[in-house]
Design goal:
This protein is mainly alpha-helical. It has one domain: Growth Hormone, Chain: A (Up-down Bundle), CATH 1.20.1250. The protein is globular and about 65 Å long. The N and C termini lie far apart (83 Å). InterPro entries: MFS_trans_sf, TM_effector. Pfam families: MFS_3. Its main location: membrane.
């Protein structure tokens, strides 16, 4: 007689690993500094409005000209004024009360946006006016951004600067994710005048955040704006190889991996969907930035910021190449619904393009967290305004150079070429540059050295 097999105990179902709380973004800056909290809220709402105007101007120029290169030139025309404003604004931030400098620059941004709205409401807008007011807007914003970045280390202890940078990623995510998509819908259904007007209203929140700050004068030796101040900044930068290389790496990424100026044409003739596709593609970049900031707990605890910058920018390059491959697929007519135009979209490829762009946004935001923290921790307060001015020029100027690269190359070849080629260039060039500067890879956030 056979013995019945021993009964096995019931198998306990495996639990899925739970996401630990320390994986999420660090919110201690809000609890530590009410002034930082108010500034963050004001900057987020104003940034959301600013994105409405940026996308609306791109669409407005494309509607008036039908020319992709003209859309690219919106960014290029403002490049030199923005560089000069950023550099001089940084000197102002190192010589005067940073709160006052930021308030004056924000007022210029407000007036230029108000003029855009008035011109649109009266039907007097021209391509020339769009170019001029966009240049004024971007120049004033570069001063505001540089000054606010120089203010942040005075509101928070050094150990919370990575968390503050991650919260800035949330700001970018909200304003760029919601802004372009909302701009596309507003332009499509209500027109340009309403879009610019909403930005005017949202801009008022920035004044609240700045107005309630305490006076913040720079510490250390104060040098009045001028050639002497500029020479001091250049001299410091020459002796700051880590800061210098992060500038170069960011310019590389933004020059060869920033195809936003092509989005109106891509939405009109390659992927279809028109203005709504333009907004969705731009918003997907911000969605990636938002997600990477939301789960930025481990990012903030990683101390080797040089390596973090290198790896994240190379991932950015790989995702840019993937976006180019999606556009090649669209050019070949794959997954097309028969007709692709502003009213008929290639939905499958639009989704794939959004995934690739979300990956670029996530990677760029991780790089930005490390770059911003390095800037704020390694640069002394007496130099912080000038170096933040240069930093803002790099951050805002790189995409404008990228717009020119993308517009010219796409005009000479095809819409998919700039992204496909540019992503490969980023991966290779970043690897070479970091290899030539091994000290950058060993940068330690606990012992910051410029």
């Amino acid at each position: 007689m056979s013995t019945p097999p021993a009964s096995r105990p019931p198998r306990t179902p495996r639990r899925l690993p739970r996401l630990r709380r320390d994986h999420f973004i660090d919110l201690r800056p809000f609890r530590t500094s009410p002034a930082f909290t108010r500034l963050w809220i004001g900057s987020t709402l104003a940034g959301l409005g600013g994105q409405l105007t940026i996308v609306a101007v791109m669409l407005h120029v494309y509607e008036l000209t039908g020319d992709t290169l003209a859309v690219s030139m919106v960014a290029v025309v403002g490049l030199v004024p923005m560089i000069l404003a950023g550099l001089y604004g940084g000197m102002l931030a190192d010589a005067f009360d940073r709160r006052v400098v930021a308030l004056i620059a924000a007022s210029v941004t407000f007036v230029s946006t108000l003029l855009l709205a008035v011109l649109a409401w009266t039907g007097l807008e021209t391509v020339a006016w769009l170019f001029v007011l966009s240049a004024v807007n971007s120049s004033a914003n570069s001063i505001v951004g540089a000054t606010k970045s120089a203010i942040t280390p005075r509101l928070l202890p050094r150990e919370l600067l990575p968390a503050a940078a991650a919260l800035q990623g949330i700001t970018v995510g909200i304003m760029v994710m919601a802004g372009p998509a909302l701009a596309g819908v507003l332009v499509a259904f209500s027109g340009y005048a309403w879009t610019y007007s909403i930005d005017v209203v949202l801009m008022t929140s920035l004044f609240l955040g700045l107005w309630t700050l305490p006076g913040i004068r720079p510490e250390g030796v104060i040098v009045r704006p001028g050639l002497a101040s500029l020479r001091d900044g250049v001299k410091f930068l020459r002796g700051a190889p880590n800061i210098r290389l992060q500038y170069i790496l960011d310019i590389t990424a933004m020059t060869f991996g920033h195809p936003i100026a092509l989005f109106p044409a891509i939405g009109a003739v390659l992927l279809g969907g028109g203005a709504i596709t333009t907004g969705a593609l731009t918003a997907s970049i911000a969605a990636g930035a938002f997600a990477s900031s939301l789960f930025s707990g481990p990012i903030g605890r990683y101390r080797w910021h040089g390596r973090g910058i290198q790896r994240s920018i190379q991932v950015f390059g790989a995702a840019t190449t993937l976006f180019g491959i999606v556009l090649v697929t669209a050019a070949l007519g794959w997954f097309a619904p028969g007709v692709v135009d502003e009213n008929h979209a290639n939905t499958v490829l639009i989704v794939l393009a959004m995934v690739a762009l979300a990956a670029t946004g996530a990677a760029d935001n991780v790089s930005a967290i490390y770059r911003s923290t390095m800037m704020q921790a390694a640069v002394p307060d007496t130099m912080r305004g000038r170096l933040q001015g240069v930093f803002m020029v790099v951050v805002a100027g790189g995409p404008r150079i990228g717009a020119l690269y993308a517009g010219v190359l796409a005009t000479l070849t095809a819409l998919w070429v700039p992204s496909l080629v540019g992503g490969l260039v980023i991966i290779a060039l970043v690897g070479v540059l970091v290899r030539l500067h091994p000290a950058f890879r060993s940068y330690d956030a606990e012992n910051p050295v410029a």
